[in-house]
Structures are given as C-alpha cells and as structure tokens.
C-alpha cells in the first residue's frame, strides 16, 4: 500500500470551458498533450488556468492552442512564462489529418473543453471538433434543459 501523501488525484480537472457545449455542437473529441514549461505546469497544479476564450488553430503540420491563460507562477522569479503564449498540442499525424479535414471541408472549429491531469500526472487537453450553433439551436437547448430540470422536480416531489 502506498503512503498517504503519495496518492494522486486521477483526472483532476484544472480548467473547463463550460460555455463550449452551449455555443457549439460537439461532433468529436480528442485527447491532446500540451507542450509546457516547468512554471506552466506548476501554475496548472495550483488550479489557476482559463480556457474560456481560447481556441485551437491548424498551422502547417501542427495544432496550436491560442489565447489560453495560464497565470505566472509567483515563486518562479525571472524564469517565468508568458501567460497568454501559444502552446503546441501533441497529436498523432492521423488525428491532425482528421481535424484538418473537418476544419477545411465541413467548416468546423477546434474548441478546447478542459485541461486535466491524467493518471500518470501529465497535463492533457480535451479538444473538440465542433460546429457553431445558431441562435434558435441555443434557445432549443435552453428549453430542453429547463424542461429536464422541471421534470426532475416533479418526479422528486411525488
């Protein structure tokens, strides 16, 4: 049995883009690794990250995470990282080609859903291939959510 202090939290979610599921229809999801510096990993372990306004872009043979915010690690001194720098995503060639085909042919977009640590302690990004919802689709989602909430209340009360 492992000592108490060395137990890891499996799939600890650091940052989540909750509006993505409301604004986009999720077609497919992928798990991607992130190329990070040491101070960025420490900042993530503190649970301070924001991917609400970020997106992924296809440039050349690589996919990049753009506009994500990882605040500076306070104890890092002068070896700190830039909070809004572009971060390379680690995906296989086959996955990159599938994503590129979805972006170019069908007009979809790449939306980050969440950043978490897997069971090995590596920072991972859940990336979604998504299609933007129209205003009436968003209203429909809102109605469905309200109806499910009301239905659960009615079943609970008797």
UniProtKB/TrEMBL annotation:
Localisation per UniProt entry: Cytoplasm
Primary location recorded for the protein, binned into one broad class: cytoplasm
Pfam hit, one: SmpB
Claim: RNA-binding is one of the keywords in the record: yes
Entry-linked InterPro entries: SmpB, SsrA-bd_prot, SsrA-bd_prot_CS
Biased composition (Basic and acidic residues): 137-149
Task performed by this protein: Required for rescue of stalled ribosomes mediated by trans-translation. Binds to transfer-messenger RNA (tmRNA), required for stable association of tmRNA with ribosomes. tmRNA and SmpB together mimic tRNA shape, replacing the anticodon stem-loop with SmpB. tmRNA is encoded by the ssrA gene; the 2 termini fold to resemble tRNA(Ala) and it encodes a 'tag peptide', a short internal open reading frame. During trans-translation Ala-aminoacylated tmRNA acts like a tRNA, entering the A-site of stalled ribosomes, displacing the stalled mRNA.
PANTHER family per record: SSRA-BINDING PROTEIN, TMRNA-BINDING COMPONENT OF TRANS-TRANSLATION TAGGING COMPLEX
Listed name of the protein: SsrA-binding protein
Lineage per the UniProt record: Bacteria, Pseudomonadati, Pseudomonadota, Alphaproteobacteria, Hyphomicrobiales
